[in-house]
Amino acid sequence: MYGAIEAGGTKFNLALANDRGKIIKEKTLATGSPQEVLDQIISFYRQNPVQALGVGLFGPVDLDPSRETFGYLLKTPKEAWRNYPFYKKLSQALPGTKLALDTDVNVAGLGEYYLGNGLGKKSLLYLTIGTGIGGGYILKGRPLQGLSHPEMGHILLRPHPQDSFPGTCPYHDYCLEGMAAGPSIYGRYKKFGQDLDPNHEVWTFLAYYLAQALVSYTVVLRPDQITLGGGVMHSPNLLTRVRENFADLFHNYLDLPPLEDYIKTPHLKDRSGIFGALLLVLDENTKKQLILDSDLEREN
Amino acid sequence: MYGAIEAGGTKFNLALANDRGKIIKEKTLATGSPQEVLDQIISFYRQNPVQALGVGLFGPVDLDPSRETFGYLLKTPKEAWRNYPFYKKLSQALPGTKLALDTDVNVAGLGEYYLGNGLGKKSLLYLTIGTGIGGGYILKGRPLQGLSHPEMGHILLRPHPQDSFPGTCPYHDYCLEGMAAGPSIYGRYKKFGQDLDPNHEVWTFLAYYLAQALVSYTVVLRPDQITLGGGVMHSPNLLTRVRENFADLFHNYLDLPPLEDYIKTPHLKDRSGIFGALLLVLDENTKKQLILDSDLEREN
């Protein structure tokens, strides 16, 4: 049996998968205090023992295995979790279970790479557009070390001529996260995105900023596919507008796949992360089995 | 003996190195027609036979070894060279010589990584700011496949408030290459950079654009060091201004080395490329010897 945890700032999803990689049991917890969450994780995996457990952890998290602080949460806004040695606590509590850890964005990228938009591709850039904007770059099946981290959202942009808002980022005026993450909407209008009309000007702005950033990511990283996840992308028509703005800005500079394939929301919807966490620990045969099963499912 | 060729759009440098990696003979040719150049290369390496020859080639060039057109020049503005099968011609002319090929920017990056600014670092981003702007990202000693290509210069920027020039790029308004490569200077003032005062406003603009791009490269690629090569960087004070603008825009968002180390012009000056081309083909022991000799030289 295999385990997978998608550890987010709002909730934790725990999953149990069989030897085909099929998820057969799940549990969702609120992200309470570290101790509460840990107790429930331990209880779940003691009742449902697993040989290996993959974790996609909200960040920032130290992923350098050479450091003492490997697997610690870093300066997260969630105070109770700051400097919490998540990986160490988990491995002490589940001795004999092989653990693997990566960021939430990287595992979502892995899920899409193997089971979603990345099928048949060499590389995939996963971006999450939510309360923040982070990115994970998956190359030949692995998150690229040093290139997959939450800072990717701080790429600099030029303002839309009708948008006077300088952004919410305390570090940079006009960076992507400051201009296009969820809080930028509230920052401009004191309303949340879901309360604004799909034709509200904010979507024009967000599409413009996201497209600008995608042009720059494209020329720097040359991904084969870009997947845009996160709550902000749920807004109707935003994806279409991002593609339109991208076409305007990119101007066919390089040969890319049709934009309907190149820029997409997650094929696995909200399941990219949990599947990606699972993929961190599946052995090669089980991984192949899961990919095969998922292909068959897609064809039917 | 080893050979190295730095093949640029203006001139070709040919070098011969001994079994310590020391360059003992060199020759410079103008970039005439492909056949003229090839004849001179063949004549040089027939007189000075080498076991292996590394080439840093101006681009765009096809570097995908799985393609028929590997080593072909692509849509270069130099018409006589367009679609020229450089690698194939060279390997036919020098049978028995092991060839290795990469872009001019990647080999310059390699040179700096091993023998210059990259000493002791895990990654280095080399940018050339010349008639165009291209980049090569060296990670753990190797140009990162798919991440090292001339398109990197087309990252999008916001205009400086005093600069009304939209750039020279036929594809993108306000992209780095269009706003900060050499031709942007002539495009604005009908003068060349070397004829403009070091206090001319153009250097304010260029520093602003380069710094913006460096912020975005930094958050996307997280290089340990950035080396800025190319003719435009010869302008006095430009480097200092780039660092100042970078500090303003980046706002200490991440822990970086002191900017005097983080952003530099090439340690090897105009020798990064020829040494990088050589490094493509040195065996491990010779490479170590060359690095050692270069360290000793630096200490003295």
UniProtKB/TrEMBL annotation, chains A, B:
One GO molecular-function entry: fructokinase activity
Catalytic activity entry: D-fructose + ATP = D-fructose 6-phosphate + ADP + H(+)
UniProt keyword terms in alphabetical order: Kinase, Magnesium, Metal-binding, Transferase, Zinc
Cofactor(s) in the UniProt record: Mg(2+)
CDD domains according to UniProt: ASKHA_NBD_ROK_BsFRK-like
EC number(s) on file: 2.7.1.4
One Pfam family this sequence matches: ROK
Family the entry assigns: Belongs to the ROK (NagC/XylR) family.
Name this polypeptide is given: fructokinase
